Amino acid sequence: MKNIAVIQRVEFIEKRNEFCDALDQRWTDLLLSINLFPIFLPNNVSYVKKFLKINEINGLLISGGGALLKYNGSNPERDEVENILINFSIKKNIPVLGVCRGMQSIQNYFDNNIQIIKNHVNKRHTLKIVDNTKIGKILKQYDEVNSFHEYGSIKTNKDIITLAISNDGIIEAIRHIDKEIYGIMWHPERENPFNKLDKLFLKMIFGA
Which residue, 51, 80, 118, 206, is the most exposed by fewest CB within 10 angstroms? Predict the structure, then answer.
């Protein structure tokens, strides 16, 4: 079973004046179901740096939730943790998957700008596949995907390749041109039951 580091969202609990790291519990069920063991990391730079010195990970999952500081977000510590872990993954040649905000974090890391978009919150979209790799062949089998994001992109730069776009032209899946780094804008953990294609997609990325 492979260890997958998972970055969590930051939630502010107003009545207790607490900032909390949080993650949809369905991620645990989904990852365990495909023989991946999630290790949930706090959004604490000092902890993450020490963790990476003494622990071995086989992959990185950047989960959704919230906006990047550059796009009106309010959690700079999460942005920094994500950058540290992406750097580490590139150095160690570890596969990375960004989901929703996680894909936006990858795009931002490689200077691929995003923008406010319409009609992608609590919607479903069909996919147009523009990639012929094994990943693209999996994506071609999807009927539609869920959508819960206010930001998106319509073009990529020299480092990022588009895998799929929505029926209204928003990029829904990406990969890095020569590194094992991928991003999707839909949420596999929110499907009930879990989509077999999502499981296959995750297994292919992380070698499960």
Answer: 118
Mean of pLDDT values over 166-190: 96
Query: What is the number of domains present in the chain?
Result: 1
The answer, yes or no, to whether residue 134 has pLDDT greater than 90, is no
User: Tokens at residue 123, please?
Assistant: 């919607």
Question: Contact at 8 Å (CB) between 174 and 139?
Answer: no
Q: What beta strand segments (E) does the chain contain? A: 2-7, 9-13, 18-22, 36-41, 59-62, 96-99, 115-116, 121-125, 127-129, 145-148, 151-152, 160-166, 171-176, 181-184
C-alpha radius of gyration, the chain, whole number: 16
Interstrand relation of 36-41 and 59-62 (parallel, antiparallel or unpaired): unpaired
CATH number for the domain spanning 129: value is 3.40.50.880
Q: The tokens 């260890």 sit on which residue? A: 3
CA–CA dist 111, 93 (Å, integer)? 20
Q: Could you list the beta-strand ranges (E) of 50-144.
A: 59-62, 96-99, 115-116, 121-125, 127-129
Q: What are phi and psi of 140, to 5 degrees?
A: -65, -20
Look over the chain and give the mean of its residue pLDDT values, rounded to a whole number: 95
Which two tokens mark 186?
């839909």
Average pLDDT of 56-85? 95
What lies within 8 Å, CB to CB, of 2 at 6+ separation is: 35, 36, 37, 58, 59, 206, 207, 208
Question: Which of 107, 88, 93 shows the shortest CA–CA distance to 48?
Answer: 88
pTM attached to this predicted model: 0.96
